[in-house]
Amino acid sequence: MNAPASFARTAPAPSQPAGQPAGAASSAARPLLETRGLTIRFGGHVAVNAVSCAFRPGELTCIVGPNGAGKTTYFNLISGQLPPTAGQIVLDGEDVTRLPVSHKTRRGIGRAFQLTSLFPQLSVLENVRLAVQARQQRGIDLFSMWSRHRDLQAQAMAILERVALAGKRHLTVASLPHGDQRKLEVGILLALQPRVFMFDEPTAGMSVDEVPVILDLIREIRQDRSKTVLLVEHKMDVVRSLADRIIVLHNGALVADGDPAEVIASPVVQQAYLGLPEEEGDHA
Ligand SMILES: Nc1ncnc2c1ncn2[C@@H]1O[C@H](COP(=O)(O)OP(=O)(O)OP(=O)(O)O)[C@@H](O)[C@H]1O
Ligand SMILES: [Mg+2]
């Protein structure tokens, strides 16, 4: 299906920043992150198809689209989990397309880790402390080790307070229920202090009372005008309450990009891309 006319967009020339923010971020601000013609093929299937988009500091962009649209794959490309078939990823003016995940993380592209790939047998506190430590990457100074340890511990505790896990700091990660694991993922992301925060359905599988903790944190991160937030989200009430801008992926292609109210209100987008009844507007 063709893109709706009002949201149709063409890929920019490779040297130009793509997309104009519709939300709070100044259109004059230099993009913090750009994808230019970003593409990945799996055999004959193009999962992400020439996506050109620029994300500015101070902007929270929701990425929506039907199941299988390519949202998670787009994140996998940006964070370095998958190498693109074509296209570029530019972070703060620097081409980072081919950098491995660890280098991208160090440069400030932050994506919630799968906790299973961290230290499931260590405690919640230890996992966050290690993330704080990884970010600081200071050399070992034997004389200051103890005070440093206390400092790291205090920073990790402050983060655990923010994600409402302080009371569970001594539990092993493996023993945490799903909702707490998702909160810890966000905590570890906070500890790494990225410039670009990427959340892929951060509240999926959470109980209703846990969701506000995560949404409030995302709101808090968004207050920092130096950060860029990308949020893949199906729940339209969440999208409405958080987005400065919405982009829509469909069959791997960017088919809409604009002001949240306009994108959501578009009947074509609602029906074709979100699969939503026009009045209801809630996917989950
Ligand atoms: N490693 C892979 N190998 C082959 N195909 C893949 C791979 N990763 C993703 N795909 C395919 O790419 C397409 C996009 O998948 P993706 O997971 O990015 O969709 P999504 O928009 O995140 O969907 P959902 O809303 O269900 O999470 C799908 O058709 C998927 O099967
Ligand atoms: Mg996905």
From TrEMBL:
Statement: the UniProt record of this protein carries the keyword Cell membrane: yes
All residue ranges annotated as the ABC transporter domain in the record: 33-276
GO cellular component: plasma membrane
Keyword Cell inner membrane applies: yes
Keywords: ATP-binding, Cell inner membrane, Cell membrane, Membrane, Nucleotide-binding, Transport
Superkingdom in the source lineage: Bacteria
InterPro entries documented for this protein: AAA+_ATPase, ABC_AA/LPS_Transport, ABC_transporter-like_ATP-bd, P-loop_NTPase
One Pfam family of this chain: ABC_tran
Stretch list, region Disordered: 1-28
An example molecular function term from Gene Ontology annotations: ATP binding
Low complexity composition bias: residue spans: 11-28
Protein name, per record: ABC transporter, ATP-binding component
